[in-house]
């Protein structure tokens, strides 16, 4: 790789640039390198420890072939007629074929009767193995180097990215033939475990480059956590919990012996809720503590016995990390509307896999494995097609809000205040979970005021200032797209709940594309035959445009 250094900027070239540091990014970088191209990967944190996957264990939707039909059917049914059977089949097959590779690279899956059981992984070890493999195949990794904006060639294709290196206190530019955005979804800095790097940066970069988002109304995913340590969002132990109010009255929460998924949201709106894991048998206790040990660390640190003592619980917003909204992909190589730009993992919309339901845990893990590889292969092919003069293209930076002021001479905006303003609209259950037209309009008006702030003069004194002002802009942008999409889907479907439209409308079988910076828009992309074929979408005239 050609490298030129200066006092203020590091300049690099590669065939494929991957932005992100989780499983999808690692698989994309490996798949691209396997095509014989030069690959650079830049991560906001340390590839191997940053992101949601590295923080704990995770199941993987990668059943053996004899169970494919069953798992495909179950996954499709959860998508509420918006998932796509062909995509689900592709994801399951690719994940199943890929996990043996991880074992070859050094990961040790548990054994049963001498056979490897590849149903889940331990996040820290899984990511350590993926990082080690990337170094083995020659991928150049830049940690602590958040990308801030994409570079565009004169023909509108992506030509690399620009960012900052925290530890070296300088900027960097990577000129590349193609770029894969695999830098996660957006949890709005809710402190959900492993999600502090998931602030929607990739979504903003994609739209600035001319890309589109889709299913952003599926951005209201909350998960249970202990209130005294509202970070570890592992729901499995709470399947065996009894719930009571502050006075000790039983709150129920189960339907035919299964936990009601909407129970806790509604109960918390009425007052504090307490949980005790007293429904778990000793056998279940041992199994859950082994497979979800990180969920028990808060109890151990606090000296609490969760099986005999009740603890206050809360819900933590995970947004699009376990929701499904993200960058709209337009082909089976996970390409976007922008030539040379690909999306994978949580950064990409998972609508084909899950509709508007959560793809959390197993489906998400399989999605990261499969889309990472498809995006990496697609990016490598695109970069090769550009020929030897790829880095001679004239390029321009695409970044706007949080990087460059539209109002020179204006007062510098405070990124922390902007973040708090976004969280005030996105965190409350009564705003983001139980949605209605008036509350959505009220929040959009406040978010529009924040958007005008981040158009102003960003603080740029240090690389941290650059990163944080850009992060604030991304959070505002994602919140606006999420609520604007929610406003225009006038039904309740899966995780998108409209109190003023409580029924699922069988006539709303479409994905909602969205985008725009100053002027937001939505478009209905009708699903022709989600049950039998790959997604074939027809574009209707723009349904609505709003400038608040």
UniProtKB/TrEMBL annotation:
The keyword Oxidoreductase applies. Residues 440-509 form the Fumarate reductase/succinate dehydrogenase flavoprotein-like C-terminal domain. Keywords: Flavoprotein, Oxidoreductase. GO terms for molecular function: steroid dehydrogenase activity, acting on the CH-CH group of donors. Gene3D superfamilies: FAD/NAD(P)-binding domain, Fumarate reductase/succinate dehydrogenase flavoprotein-like, C-terminal domain, Succinate dehydrogenase/fumarate reductase flavoprotein, catalytic domain. Residues 15-217 form the FAD-dependent oxidoreductase 2 FAD-binding domain. InterPro entries: FAD-dep_OxRdtase_2_FAD-bd, FAD/NAD-bd_sf, Fum_R/Succ_DH_flav-like_C_sf, Fum_Rdtase/Succ_DH_flav-like_C, SdhA/FrdA/AprA, Succ_DH/fumarate_Rdtase_cat_sf. It comes from the Bacteria. Pfam families: FAD_binding_2, Succ_DH_flav_C. The active site is at 259 (proton acceptor). This is FAD-binding protein.
């Amino acid at each position: 790789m050609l490298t030129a250094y200066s006092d203020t900027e590091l300049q690099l070239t590669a065939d494929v640039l991957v932005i992100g540091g989780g499983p999808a990014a690692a698989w994309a970088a490996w798949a691209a390198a396997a095509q014989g191209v030069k690959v650079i990967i830049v991560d906001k944190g340390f590839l191997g420890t940053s992101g949601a996957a590295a923080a704990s264990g995770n199941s993987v939707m990668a059943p053996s072939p004899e169970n494919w039909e069953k798992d495909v059917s179950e996954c499709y049914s959860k998508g509420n007629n918006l998932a796509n059977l062909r995509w689900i089949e592709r994801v399951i097959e690719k994940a199943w074929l890929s996990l043996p590779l991880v074992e070859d690279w050094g990961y040790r899956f548990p054994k049963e009767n001498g056979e490897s059981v590849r149903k889940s992984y331990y996040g820290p070890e899984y990511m350590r193995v993926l990082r080690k493999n990337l170094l083995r195949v020659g991928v150049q990794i830049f940690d602590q180097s958040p990308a801030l904006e994409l570079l565009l060639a004169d023909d509108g294709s992506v030509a690399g990215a620009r960012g900052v290196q925290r530890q070296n206190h300088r900027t960097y530019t990577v000129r590349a033939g193609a770029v894969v955005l695999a830098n996660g979804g957006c949890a709005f800095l809710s402190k959900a475990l492993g999600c502090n790097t998931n602030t929607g940066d990739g979504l903003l970069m994609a739209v600035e480059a001319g890309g589109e988002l889709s299913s952003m109304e599926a951005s209201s995913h909350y998960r249970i956590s202990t209130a005294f340590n509202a970070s570890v969002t592992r729901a499995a132990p709470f399947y065996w919990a009894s719930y009571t109010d502050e006075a000790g009255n039983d709150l129920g929460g189960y339907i035919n012996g299964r936990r009601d998924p909407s129970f806790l949201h509604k109960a918390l709106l009425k007052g504090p809720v307490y949980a005790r894991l007293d429904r778990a048998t000793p056998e279940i206790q041992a199994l859950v503590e082994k497979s979800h040990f990180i969920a028990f660390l808060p109890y151990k640190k606090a000296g609490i016995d969760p099986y005999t003592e009740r603890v206050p619980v809360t819900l933590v917003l995970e947004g699009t990390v376990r929701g499904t909204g993200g960058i709209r992909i337009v082909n089976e190589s996970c390409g976007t509307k922008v030539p040379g730009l690909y999306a994978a993992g949580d950064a990409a919309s998972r609508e084909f896999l899950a509709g508007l339901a959560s793809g959390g845990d197993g489906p998400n893990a399989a999605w990261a494995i499969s889309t990472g590889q498809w995006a990496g292969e697609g990016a490598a092919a695109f970069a090769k097609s550009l020929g030897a003069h790829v880095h001679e293209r004239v390029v321009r930076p695409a970044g706007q809000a949080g990087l460059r002021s539209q109002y020179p001479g204006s007062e510098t905006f405070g990124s922390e205040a902007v973040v708090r303003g976004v969280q005030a609209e996105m965190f409350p259950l009564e705003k983001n979970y139980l949605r209605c037209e008036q509350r959505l309009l009220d929040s959009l008006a406040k978010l529009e005021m924040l958007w005008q702030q981040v158009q102003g003069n960003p603080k740029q004194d240090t690389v941290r200032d650059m990163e944080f002002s850009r992060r604030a802009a991304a959070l505002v942008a994602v919140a606006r797209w999420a609520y604007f999409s929610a406003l225009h889907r006038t039904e309740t479907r899966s995780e998108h709940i409209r109190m003023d439209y409580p029924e699922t409308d069988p006539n709303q079988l479409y994905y909602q594309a969205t985008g725009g910076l100053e002027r937001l828009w939505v478009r209905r992309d009708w699903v022709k035959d989600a049950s039998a074929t790959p997604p074939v979408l027809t574009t209707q005239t723009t349904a609505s445009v709003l400038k608040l």
